[in-house]
Amino acid sequence: MNLQSEVESILKKVGSSLGYGEDFVVSFSNRPELSDFQSNSCFAISKRHSKKPLELATEIVNNIPQNTKYEFSAENPGFINIRIKNGYLSKKAQELLEDNLVGVEKNKKRKKVLMDYGGANVAKELHVGHLRSPIIGEALNRLYKLFGDEVIADAHLGDWGLQMGLTIAQLQEEGVLDYYFKGAGKEPIITLEMLNIAYPKASKRKNFDEEFKQKASEITLYIQQKKEPYYSAYKKIREVSVKEIEKNYNELNANFDLFLGESDAEAYIEKTIKIFEDKKLAYESEGALIVDVAKDGENMPSDKLDENGQPYLLNPMPPVILKKQNGADVYATTDIATILMRNETIKDLDEIIYVVDGRQSSHFERVFRACKMAGISPAEQELLHVGFGTMNGKDGKPFKTREGTTVKLADVVNLLIEKASEKLRSNGVKPSRELALKIGLGAMRFGDLSNTVTKDYVFDLDKFLSFEGKTGPYIQYTVARINSIMAKTNCQGGEIKIESDEERKILISLLKLIGAYQVCYKENSLNTLCSASYDLASAFSTFYNNHHILNEKKVERKKSYLSLCELVKKALVQALYVLAIDIPDRM
Ligand code: ARG
Questions:
Q1: Looking at domain 409-578, which CATH architecture does it have?
Q2: Mutate to test the pocket of ligand 1, among 122, 203, 356 (most ligand atoms within 8 A of CB)
Q3: Which end of the chain has fewer CB atoms < 10 Å from its terminal CB, N or C?
């Protein structure tokens, strides 16, 4: 049991024995200089009993049996303040040091969760828009596992859409694919560079070249029908691109159990459509096959008319499209068929979680509704979209290059390395690529994850890379500093005895950190863990500045300090692991 609930149960017990019931809540103190925990419950409870809050608080405190763990005091105008006694705090510290999970308790019920993150699109170069998903997704994956859940991570690559048709149309025209289309020459070597040029070119062209766009749509349909030679050319391009995507995700510390794509759902599309048709949920409209998912109160006509003279709809909830007029599958088709595939191939999934840009929330809402209506997702299964905000530039707009184009992942990585190297050099450390990357990526991840997931944030690398303040490098630095203290002594740690305020502060920060995991797990956002890690690191820094660990003359004290260092390190290493931030060996 954690200390907060332990205190809470003491108050509940005394409260009910005195006839005031059990409505006592305890939180960490707002005034840490006065107490560790506080309870404000006497204000509400005293009202019900026509008493003054302070009178009630005093009565409760006076009736708490003497104990070795906590000191309670009633404070004006009716708070109960609670201080953990040093002896008990020391005992807890020792327990935490010996605990594998440093205080985190595994769930009683183990959930089975599929996490869908990554979502890179084949044939398109990875850009910053695709960074948040693997960053947040990987951290949630590790967090859920820490609580004992079984997590299956799937990259769900975008490989069944128009971008494939566009790329092939472009390369075919350039003669690169003659081997497939004219049976001419040898099998071509298709490089990444070729794709990186072909797709953007084709993508621009489709906006003014109607004929080209038509052709690309047709090719997309042929690929989906596995028609040759389109399908062979498709497979070749997919292979080149997927190899690169795998490399990128590796570098980003994103680990997947399944590296499937939209195309893998193809085998389930016919069955999916049949389910909707059999249940009379799908119907034809203007040649397309669609499913209505709107509920009462949605799609309500308003007085205003649009340019076609049709009334604007309030609470719009457009239908789900299963097949386009030309018979092609769209984004929703593959997402729904993928849920069917997941449920048929993986048994008893409690949850499917999508870590995808928040701007896709309407898409997921509609996909989820359709799956529930058709029974493709059982009623008890939770389908959840964890939608994240945009990574903005300092101008508050989506992060772009100076020229206004989207920033490529490769550019970001180079920038991280360059800036982290600069930082290291100014600290007198010779940077290697590997070291700079660890720090750069750590800075970026922490900068990202310390924001509430749903919010937009400003991608400010200079701020993220600071070695001071609430940043990834600061936490990494704290661990590196503890490592260097340990390396400088032969003295072994010993029993932890908490005495000074600085030591107490470390322990309180640590208790808050343990609580932060639970908050993050509930909110599917890592910001609380980031703040709590920072608070612990900064409590350690205050302790370090006020106590000479290595020069301490009293051996018992020194041993206790060293074990405390070990405990802080263990807690920070666990937090960094969850955030998927690597720890450099020097900084
Ligand atoms: N490829 C998609 C995109 O670029 C993201 C995929 C997200 N996952 C999903 N199951 N739809 O927007």
A1: Orthogonal Bundle (1.10)
A2: 356
A3: N
